[in-house]
Amino acid sequence: MTRMTDYKAEHFRWQVDGAVAQITIDRPEKKNPLTFESYAELRDTFEALRHDPDIKSIVLTGADGNFCAGGDVFEIIEPLTKMAMPDLLKFTRMTGAVVKAMRACPQPIVAAIDGICVGAGACLAMGSDLRYGTANSKVAFLFVRVGLAGCDMGACAMLPRIIGHGRAAELLYSGRVMKGEEAERWGFYNRLCSSEDVLGEARAMAEILATGPSFAHGITKRMLHEEWDMSIDEAIEAEARAQAVCMATGDFTRAFEAFAEKREPEFEGN
Questions:
Q1: Whole-number CA gyration radius for the chain
Q2: CA-to-CA distance for 234 and 175, rounded, in angstroms?
Q3: pLDDT tens digits for 118-136?
Q4: Residue 254 is inside which H or E element, if any?
């Protein structure tokens, strides 16, 4: 298997600096829409990241002032209107697999969002672990505006957990734009930044995460995802088991030794 540090992407920009990988959706002339090929490559990339210990965190962004305009109207939407049900289902399962892969990879994903972030682009932002946005950004789950349901790529499950059921219902039923300040106030954004600084601040957070206990970060991400379907009692038991595993790692021992010696710990992800 090719290490992700050596990976060459075909349908988006891929770069690795140290332990931080950056994915840049790069079709700026159309505000960075997705194609059948870029969906598939994003899915495969996040699935491959699941098995690469060298990448510790990920930044997801778009080129030239926009995040992602969703599916390309003429390269995806138009062909979909001519497909039979088996191919339609194949497509919707593929798009959902992108978010599944994002949630399954252990690395925290920090999205840097400016400008247009709509449709599938909004779902990519939703599927990230942290979202840094700008006042200039416009987030919209547009599916209803093209005659589709709001239940796309996990939106009906995940969006209510991020911003609350009532707010999510409003966005999914109306397809309206949620501007940056509202997105931050509603909790969709972790932080509101200037357009000039949003990528730099997202990268700075990704670098902080990359220097932390990556094994433990992966456990935290997994438990945040899996505990949605658990009772409180089940969650407490699951966390007890997960934390016991983390306590058996070298990172835990090294952190104690560093504390005892009054120095900063150095984590190795094991």
A1: 19
A2: 36
A3: 999 999 999 999 999 999 9
A4: helix 250-260
pLDDT at 1 over 70: no
**How many C-beta atoms lie closer than 10 Å to residue 86's C-beta?**
8
**Short-list 22, 26, 183, 37, CA closest to 107:** 22
Q: Which 8-state DSSP code applies to residue 142? A: G
What's this model's pTM, rounded to 2 decimal places?
Answer: 0.96
Characterize the bridge pairing of strands 13-17 and 20-25. Answer: antiparallel
List, as one string, the DSSP characters of 174-242. Answer: H---EEHHHHHHTTS-SEEE-TTTHHHHHHHHHHHHHTS-HHHHHHHHHHHHHGGGS-HHHHHHHHHHH
Average pLDDT over residues 81-86: 96
Q: What is the identity of the amino acid at 144?
A: V
- The answer to whether the CB of 183 falls within 8 A of the CB of 137 is yes
Q: What is the DSSP letter of 147?
A: T
CA distance 48 to 28: 26
